[in-house]
């Protein structure tokens, strides 16, 4: 069985084609600058040279056709016939309270996805566009929607309710949702496999650290907390997102800096975070280099990031009344030796100790715990696309 996984953005379409018999990737790629000048497809078939094709790509339907043509191409394709695609799994950012698990897409489900657009106006419209484009070209192929928020639907009410009138929660669905659920679910399952214990017996903090970062408490296989909230803006400070701040700061900035209502959301999402603190970059690799060269603001940005991660680990250990393991994943979590060390430093009270030699690892699965560490500290690369493919297979 071959499953195509698609992640549509407003001007991009990422894809991976899996052979589910052995869970191998047959091809992957991205269609960039949809609806803009300079459109391009970057296609990487397994065990073949990478292909780049420049072309005008006016809309998502053209992008989907371009992707399928690449998969079928005689030279760099991996399919002989389009019917070899048994199903398509779509990543969807926000399922609201409507969707607590993956679903097969039909007309009613598609309407439900559109109803969730106000909750994620930057992401869900593009996800819907991608689904509609694929349905037009592959009308008979089963398709599934896999939600970033679904894994966190087990967060209890006392954890997801904000301190606003309850009637507004009911009216507008204003609550903590949590994000990166597919990643947190995948790595928590891998922790159980790695430790050889039932996930139902484990208390795990999963740290998905990248340009966008979120931290989850996974108790007995269920998410009970996530640092992101109503939107991905809440939580730990990120590349360009401010993370959790006093809401009064928003109104203060609007007044003092003359930032308009229609621009403040963009400002908090794209101009803040470690970029704003450091004045150097939103890329943590640049920050580490700058800090090593003596840039004090770059070092401050890294210190803030690590400190906030420590606070979430501690609070989630309290929420779960215990801690068996923490796991690092995402671009930073999997690759930054120094940031993992900063986060784990002086966490002895929680039984967290890492071995510097074991921590000298990037991009692969590892146990970096020091001897005698009560809490296991793991590095596990995430694989959200495979998780989407597996969920799609289970549905069909």
From TrEMBL:
GO cellular component: cytoplasm
Gene3D superfamilies: 3.30.420.40
Subcellular localization: Cytoplasm
Positions annotated to bind ATP: 14, 208-212, 283-285, 331-335
PROSITE patterns named in the record: ACETATE_KINASE_1, ACETATE_KINASE_2
Pfam family, one: Acetate_kinase
Residues involved in Mg(2+) binding: 7, 384
Reactions catalysed according to its record: acetate + ATP = acetyl phosphate + ADP
Cofactor binding, note field: Mg(2+). Can also accept Mn(2+).
Residues involved in substrate binding: 91
UniProt cross-references to NCBIfam families, sorted A to Z: ackA
HAMAP family, per the entry: Acetate_kinase
Family classification: Belongs to the acetokinase family.
Protein name, UniProt field: Acetate kinase
Organism: Biomaibacter acetigenes
Top-level taxonomy: Bacteria, Bacillati, Bacillota, Clostridia, Thermosediminibacterales
